[in-house]
C-alpha cells in the first residue's frame, strides 16, 4: 500500500498518543491536521513525520542554530500552554513556522498567533511555509525575541521555542492578566520546560518537564559556551556559566594519570541528565557537560556513562587546573584528571551521596519560583537559588 503524507501524519499522532499519554485530544488533532512536511521543503516526507528534531540552519562552523523541534516535546509544551479558541499568543523563535501553525489551529476561531525570529531568512522561510500550508493569518516578524512584540500586546500566552537563560522582562510586561508563559529555561545547565503563572508578586511554575533546545541568540543570549577540545574526535565541553576557566589543557589532562573515586551508591546513568544533574548544577557553578563521537579510534571518554546517537555523554566539575567527570555504566565513579582532579572527584562523589540521602529528587515534584532581582532580597527557603540577570530562581521539591 502506498504511503501518503496523511498516513504518515496519522502514524505520528498515534506515536504521540501512545508515548505521551498526557497529551490531550485537541493537541493531537492539531498534529493530525497540520502537514509538517510542508514546513520542511527538501526533507523526504517520511523523515518529516519521524518523531525527531530536524536541523534547518547551521552557523559558519557547522553548529546547529535552528531546527524543527521534536514533535513529542512540542506536543507536551502545547499542553503546558493550555491554548483555547480566542487566545492571543506570542511565540519567540519562528523556526519553520510549524509550531505557529499548530497554535493557530488551537486558538481558532478568533485567536491570533504572532511569531518573531532574529534571522531574516528564517522569517521569510516560515512565511513561505505558512502560506504553502494554508495559514496566512499567522504573523511572522523579524525581531529580537528578548523584546517580544509590543505592537500586538497584550498576549494571553507567551511561548519560547528556543532555550532561554533568563526570563525577559518584556515577556511579562506584554502578558495579559491571568496569562501564562512557557519557556525552555536554563537551570544551571540542565534545561526544563517551565509553565509560569503570576503568584503573590512573583512567577510560579505550574508544570515542569525535561527538554532540550538550542539556545536563544541575540541580546538575550546567556553565558553558556561550547568549546571544541578535539575536532578529530568531536570532543566538546559545554560550560553553562561561561568561560571562567580555560579548558584548552584538558585533552592533555585526560591523557595523564587519573584519580578514581567510587560513588558508593547505585545510580542509573540517565540520572546524570535528570534529577542528579539538576541537583548538582543548582549547587555547583563548575558543572559542565562533555560529549565525544563514538567513532573516535582514541577516545578521551571511553567510559562515558551514556551513549546516544553516535555520541558519548558525561558530566562533571571543572577547575582551573583539572576536572572530574562521571565514568562507568554499571558502577558509577567520579574520575579526576589534572592537579585538582582528585579534589573535584571527591566533591562530585559527595554530591551524589547527598542527592541519594535527600531521596533522589527528580523532575517529579520539582517547583521553580522566579523572583524579580529588582524586588525584595528575601525569598522563601527551598532548594538551591540560581541567580540570573533579571530573575532569581528558587528550586524546591514537594515530598514524594
Automatic annotation (TrEMBL):
Subcellular location: Cytoplasm
Record's protein name: Protein-L-isoaspartate O-methyltransferase
NCBIfam families attached to this UniProt entry: methyltran_FxLD
GO MF terms, alphabetically ordered: methyltransferase activity
Gene name per UniProt: fxlM
Xref: CDD domains: AdoMet_MTases
UniProt xrefs under Gene3D superfamilies: Vaccinia Virus protein VP39
Top class in the EC scheme: transferase
Keyword S-adenosyl-L-methionine attached: yes
Amino acid at each position: 500500500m502506498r504511503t501518503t503524507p496523511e498516513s504518515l501524519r496519522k502514524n505520528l499522532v498515534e506515536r504521540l498518543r501512545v508515548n505521551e499519554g498526557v497529551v490531550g485530544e485537541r493537541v493531537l488533532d492539531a498534529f493530525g491536521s497540520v502537514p509538517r512536511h510542508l514546513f520542511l521543503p527538501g526533507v523526504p516526507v517520511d523523515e518529516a513525520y519521524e518523531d525527531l528534531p530536524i536541523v534547518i540552519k547551521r552557523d559558519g562552523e557547522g553548529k546547529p542554530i535552528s531546527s524543527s523541534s521534536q514533535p513529542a516535546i512540542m506536543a507536551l509544551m502545547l499542553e503546558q500552554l493550555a491554548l483555547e479558541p480566542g487566545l492571543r499568543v506570542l511565540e519567540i523563535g519562528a523556526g519553520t513556522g510549524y509550531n505557529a501553525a499548530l497554535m493557530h489551529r488551537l486558538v481558532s476561531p478568533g485567536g491570533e498567533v504572532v511569531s518573531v525570529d532574529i534571522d531574516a531568512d528564517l522569517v521569510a522561510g516560515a512565511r513561505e511555509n505558512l502560506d504553502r500550508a494554508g495559514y496566512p493569518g499567522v504573523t511572522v516578524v523579524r525581531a529580537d525575541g528578548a523584546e517580544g512584540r509590543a505592537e500586538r500586546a497584550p498576549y494571553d500566552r507567551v511561548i519560547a521555542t528556543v532555550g532561554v537563560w533568563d526570563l525577559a522582562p518584556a515577556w511579562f510586561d506584554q502578558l495579559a492578566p491571568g496569562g501564562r508563559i512557557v519557556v525552555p529555561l536554563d537551570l544551571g545547565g540542565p534545561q526544563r520546560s517551565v509553565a509560569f503563572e503570576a503568584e503573590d508578586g512573583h512567577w510560579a511554575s505550574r508544570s515542569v518537564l525535561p527538554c532540550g533546545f538550542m539556545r536563544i541568540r541575540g541580546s538575550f543570549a546567556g553565558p553558556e559556551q561550547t568549546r571544541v577540545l578535539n575536532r578529530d574526535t568531536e570532543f566538546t565541553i559545554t560550560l553553562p556559566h561561561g568561560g571562567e576557566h580555560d579548558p584548552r589543557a584538558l585533552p592533555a589532562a585526560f591523557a595523564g594519570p587519573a584519580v578514581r573515586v567510587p560513588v558508593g551508591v547505585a545510580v542509573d546513568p540517565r540520572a546524570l541528565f535528570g534529577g542528579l544533574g539538576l541537583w548538582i548544577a543548582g549547587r555547583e557553578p563548575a558543572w559542565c557537560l562533555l560529549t565525544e563521537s563514538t567513532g573516535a579510534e582514541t577516545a578521551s571518554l571511553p567510559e562515558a556513562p551514556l551513549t546516544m546517537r553516535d555520541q558519548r555523554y558525561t558530566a562533571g566539575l571543572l577547575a582551573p587546573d583539572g576536572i572530574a567527570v562521571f565514568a562507568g555504566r554499571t558502577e558509577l565513579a567520579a574520575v579526576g584528571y589534572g592537579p585538582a582532579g582528585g579534589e573535584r572527584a571527591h566533591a562530585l562523589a559527595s554530591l551524589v551521596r547527598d542527592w541519594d540521602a535527600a531521596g533522589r529528587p527528580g523532575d517529579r515534584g520539582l517547583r521553580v519560583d522566579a523572583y524579580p532581582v529588582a524586588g525584595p532580597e528575601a525569598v522563601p527557603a527551598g532548594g538551591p537559588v540560581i541567580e540570573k540577570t533579571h530573575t532569581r530562581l528558587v528550586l524546591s521539591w514537594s515530598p514524594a
